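Obj: model holo form, ligand = copper (II) ion.
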Amino acid sequence: MKMSLTRKPLAVAIGLALFLLASAGCSSYGSTSSQTTTSAPASTSAATNEVDLYDYRFDPKSITLTQGKTVTLKVKNEGKAEHTFTIRDLGIDSTVKPGTTVDVTITPSQAGTFQLACKYHQGSGMVAQVTVK
Ligand SMILES: [Cu+2]
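Output (holo structure tokens):
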């Protein structure tokens, strides 16, 4: 069981490496190459637009924003309890009822690391981190 679990990602990695080598090698013939279905590597850091609230945690646990750039986060409450999406230092405080999604628009004016928390469940560890670069 463990063997198959470790082998699969390795095979995928090798496949991806071969694909990258192949596509780099024949870039001059690029236009005729047939379409290949590649699973894009998960890049969650750049365009994280959705934040899920659970009882009692945030997903993802860290959000990276760009200073001065306006972004709209879709804050979705997947839990049974009411939660808040609160970043005190950035003046953000939104209440999200269970089963609903609230658009939270943020234009971070200052760089740094800020705490995202649910006002109700902060004490239960419902906190996350917002990094503004
Ligand atoms: Cu909460």
